[in-house]
Each structure stands twice: as C-alpha cells, then as structure tokens.
Amino acid sequence: MRCVVLDDYQGVALANADWSGLDVTVLRDHLDDPAPALADAECVVVMRERTPFPASLFARLLHLRLLVTSGMRNASIDLAAARERGVTVCGTGSAKTPPTELTWALLLGLARNLAAENAAFHDGGPWQSTVGTDLAGATLGLLGFGNLGTAVGRVGKAFGMDVVAWSPNLTAAKTGPEGVRLAGDLHDLLRQSDFASIHLVLSDRSRGLVDAAALACLKPSAFLVNTSRAGIVDSAALLEVLREKRIAGAGLDVFEVEPLPLADELRTLPNVLATPHLGYVTRANYRTYFTEAVENIHAFIAGEPIRQL
C-alpha cells in the first residue's frame, strides 16, 4: 500500500513506529496544495489539522482509500466527502496532558517575562529589566471547563489562584467540587480575569466567540492564553488590542493560518509569546500517534478497519 505521511515537521514519523512492510514516503515541509504529491497515494497520514482535507481535495485524489489522522477528532477533514468517495478515515489516541502543560508554559512565560529576560541574557542586555506578575492571589479565568480546562484549573489552584470558569452549558454542579467559581457569562469571566485561558472546542457556536466586545472586558493588566483553536478569537480584534496594548499580552499556540506567514504582524509584537502549535507535540504523544497510525493501516489492509471516525 502506497502511504504518504504529511507535515512531519521534525522528521520523526519513521522513528516512532515500525513501518516495515509498507511503502512509505514522508514529507516534512507543509504543502499548500498537497494534491500533486499525493497523486498515487492509497493511504495518507495527517498530523492533526496541519493539512485540511476538504471535498475539493478528496475529488483530486483518485487512488486514496485510507486517511489516518492523529487524534479522534479532526475538524479540517470533510468526513461526508470521504464517505462519498469511499475513503475510510481512522484516528488514533491522544493524551490530554501535553496541551495542559503547554498552557502553563505560556502562562508562566507571560507572568515572568521569560522571553524578554532570556533574550537579554543571551544578547548582553540588562541584568533584570522586568517585574513579574504574581500568580498567587490572581484570578485565572477558564473559558471552557472540560478535561483540559479542569486540569488547567487544578494547577491554578495549586499556585494559590482564584479560579473562575464559564462556558455556555457549564453549571456550578461541575465547577463547585473543583473549588472553582462559575462566572455569570463570558464578559463577566473576562472582567474578573488576570489570566484568561481558552479551552473550548471550535464549532459553529464557538467560532468568533471572543470578539471585540469580549476582549474589551479584559483589564489592561490581563493576559490571554489560547492553546485551543485560533478561530474562537476574532483575530483582527485580538491584533488590535495587542497592538494598542489594551491588554498586557497574549500567549498563543494556535493561528488561523499555519504555518504563520513570516509577514504576519503577530510576529512583530513584543507582548505576544507564541509557539508554533506545540500543544500536542511530545515524545509520548508522537509514539501513540504513529504507532496507532501503523496499526490502522495494517487493520485496513486486513479488511478490518479500526478507530474509524
């Protein structure tokens, strides 16, 4: 079976699973139009949502029989189009701890100005030039309180933070046992927050939820962290409040276009601490992704597909 692995940025796909017996090509660089490279592919392995698979792409891949994605949810794959073309779509397991850990890496980095202080240390800049923000006693606002939001909140409580949460259907019966307060609505949540962290699934209901009016509720001293999906926040409105320093800063791991274009203004703003969508990028997660991707391929070849989406 002719297999192509897309977007293996770190070049680690082959080392994280036993691909023996399979005809595998690994592509490390992102392709805006992957169709020519996939012309003869019977199986494609994609990493999360790095390369979208809309109906128009399925229509061009005449030999495609199996599409494997890391994780059991991938909003950038048109599953209806896959079914129409007779393409089986399978997923893999995915740990919930890595995004939680990266959320705190960004939050702590913002609170203690780590990027600026590290740059000064290496570039011969001033010895201490910033004053950090205390976590103890500060309010952590969680937009979303599922598995990830709950885990982030527990760490916040360990730091001595006052934790408050909100999502459209969240109730005090869910937050109360965690020692977390329930905000009245989104604007109430953001007004209270010294640090606001987003942990919602991107959907029609959540897209653009954090709009200009919501961002205006944040204090000038507040920080916004987004390790979920960029589409939950109005990107133009966020750029404006950051540019005008109407909030203290943002920690971002997700972007509307990835890889983020070199000319994007977000790359120039000193109050942005950013990582290139690393939330799920850990050794253990990659072993799970690629090992189970290979299992999916062999199961499909045997006529017994597993982990179908």
Q: What is the level-2 CATH architecture name of the largest domain?
A: 3-Layer(aba) Sandwich
Question: Given the structure, what is the number of helices?
Answer: 10
Residue windows where pLDDT falls under 50 for at least 5 positions = none
Largest sheet: 7 strands, parallel
CATH class of the largest domain: Alpha Beta
Number of strands: 12
Kindly state the percentage of residues in helix. Answer: 25-40%
Order of helices and strands: EEEHEHEHHEHEHEHEHEHEEH
Explain what the structure shows.
By secondary structure, this protein is α/β, with parallel strands linked by helices. It has two domains: 2-95 and 282-301, Rossmann fold; 97-274, Rossmann fold. Helix content is 29%, strand content 15%. It contains ten helices and twelve strands. A seven-stranded parallel β-sheet has the order 8-7-6-9-10-11-12, sandwiched between helices. Strands 2-1-3-4-5 form a five-stranded parallel β-sheet. Helix 3 (97-111) packs across helix 5 (147-158). It is globular, with a radius of gyration of 21 Å. The protein starts with a strand and ends in an 8-residue tail after the last helix. The model has no long low-confidence stretch (mean pLDDT 97).
